[in-house]
Amino acid sequence: MIDSGRTTGADGTTVSPNRFTIVLSESDRAALGDLEKALTSELIDAAKQYASDEGFVLSGEVSVSIVTETSLKPGKFEVMAEIKVGSRAEVGLSGSTSSAPTPPVVPASVTPPTVATPSIPPVPAPAAAPLAPVRKALLVFADGTKVSVKAGVLSIGRSAESSVPLNDTNVSRRHAEIRSRGEGARIEWYLIDVGSTNGTMLNGVKISGEQKLKNGDALMIGGTAARFEVS
Q1: 114, CA 20 to 30 Å: which among 8, 25, 26, 96?
Q2: What pTM did the predictor assign?
Q3: Are 146 and 228 in contact (CB under 8 A)?
Q4: Could you say which DSSP state residue 185 is in?
Q5: How far is CA 39 from the centre of its chain?
């Protein structure tokens, strides 16, 4: 690079390039991170040492700049070398990873040397709100039998087609129903007598119409006792 960019001065001395620009892709530049400053310092020392070993003349201070090029692919780079004397510069070399040199023109999209900006981590997605607990209900009969009261309509009667068939002569074929409203943590249950002969009692009181159920309520359906439990 230095050899290709050198030139012969008017006095016959060999003048070496003293300003170098290294063009990297954005990802390669970001990968350098805090090492960029140390790398440019080492390259400056290497250029000075090589020029001294070869007997080349440096017309000014050696500088190395690293810039980014948005269109450059990762793993590729370009190096441009020039001789800078005061305010006048002579282009000495433009190089790349390929064997053929590229024109010594800094692309318009090249950004000025800056400290590499670390990649910004993605913003974590907000945690999903916890699901509301689902309330469950049971009918617990005197003999220990437990019946799950699911959402919808639970029919109770002596008929075998009932959701809860009861072998009790005091119970009508279609005696009562437990109906649910709402869902999840907001679900509620209601007890309705559907025209039974002996009636339906809630906590010792015969009901008419529908009555809202709560945990621990005592039901008497004909002659069959049960307890309503919610968890």
Answers
A1: 96
A2: 0.44
A3: no
A4: G
A5: 35
